[in-house]
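Standup notes, protein team

Yesterday: finished cleaning the Flavobacterium litorale set.
Today: DNA-directed RNA polymerase subunit omega structure.
Blockers: none.

Input for DNA-directed RNA polymerase subunit omega:
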Amino acid sequence: MDLKKAQAPVNTITYNKTDIEEPTGNIYEAITIIAKRANQINGEIKKELIEKLEEFATYNDSLEEIFENKEQIEVSKFYEKLPKPHALAVEEWLKEKISFRESNK
């Protein structure tokens, strides 16, 4: 997932309920699908962030020595400014990038 190209809003916005429920016909089912996708996105972002921060990790036994790493701070700031996973999931849902199937059919 390319987070730099995401067009999801950073702030909270109001969506039209009929746009959200249109693909499934049921708002609760649509929200469940979006929530599951948001959890997947959150896992991907967390994994990517941990991998990038591991590059800057310094392991020492002394608790008194704490080094500020500017690159690490910049990486953290980048991820803080990203849209939240639920906003990314709603964006994907509205652009029909999420596929789903009914389990009872």
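Follow-up from PR in the comments: Residues 10 and 45 are 15 Å apart (CA to CA).
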